[in-house]
Inverse folding.
DNA sequence: TCATATACGATAAATTATATCGTATATGAC
DNA sequence: GTCATATACGATATAATTTATCGTATATGA
């Protein structure tokens, strides 16, 4: 029903990494390689994730030998709702939403829909819920103790 | 990011239909054919949807010539959270959740995960939100005025 | 000029969701 | 009993989406 896509998930991992690092050294720069190695993610996927994060404006990039990524916005100013929209685009719990008054082709088969206005209302309540969650919460948790041997998880 | 699957969506349409019909005539029975014709859904898909709904225990079925489906539980007693779990199984915003203390193979590549406990916490908060929504809200909305010519939507 | 980084489009692979088909079973009316 | 009407349900095909991979371009500092 409800699942973050992997890019979003890896994006959250990267943001936690960068924000905790920032607390220790605000001038630090983080490369895709560093994230990939820290968590055992494939480099290519990590690089894509960071490029996506950069497109959202939450982090910024610098090319070249001493390049890498740095935070551009404070995570206290970004809600989970905004983050999901930035990462995955404007979305809805149903395909047809967006226009409360009229059904559309995207409803699929149904040529008549009685639940649309409720769905739209739900959508708003859901987004309100997501907007109440600050991304800064990411920084709070303890460092996870679990660490596995890498070979177990590489195919 | 977050989208109901079609079966769940059609299920909500069917529940609204049945619950409003129940208000007018508590002894009434609803067939898959009636739902399909009322909203322009393909019969086979509607039938599957109603069978799924029946498996959840929210409606019950009767075979035979005067058969069909009737509500088994009051919609005031079913939350959206419970409904989604019944229709789509226990789910989580991330693949790896379920066990707060240990990462698992389902995390995918990552052999170390720093966001897992936050994800699990989010999951609980999200489910709490969904549980605060009564399925009975479905009955409330006005009858939708939009109705399209059927031929526009049949491929 | 070389090593290191990001940029980014194209495409392949895998997964999941959706739709379709066929056949079985139950029931009421006649 | 048989016929029309309904649900039951597994198997499978199709479509859609997500995820992963590849190749190449561009930028920068030593």
């Amino acid at each position: 029903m409800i699942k973050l896509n992997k890019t979003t998930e890896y994006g959250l991992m990267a943001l936690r990494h960068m924000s905790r690092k920032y607390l220790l050294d605000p001038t630090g720069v983080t490369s895709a390689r560093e994230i990939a190695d820290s968590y055992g993610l494939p480099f290519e996927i990590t690089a894509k994730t960071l490029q996506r994060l950069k497109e959202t404006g939450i982090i910024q990039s610098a090319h070249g030998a001493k390049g890498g990524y740095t935070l551009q916005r404070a995570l206290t100013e970004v809600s989970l709702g905004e983050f999901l929209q930035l990462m995955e685009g404007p979305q809805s719990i149903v395909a047809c939403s967006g226009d409360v008054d009229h059904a559309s082709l995207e409803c699929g088969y149904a040529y008549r829909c009685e639940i649309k206005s409720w769905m739209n209302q739900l959508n708003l309540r859901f987004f309100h819920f997501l907007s109440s969650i600050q991304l800064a919460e990411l920084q709070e948790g303890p460092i996870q103790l679990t660490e596995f041997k890498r070979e177990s998880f590489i195919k």
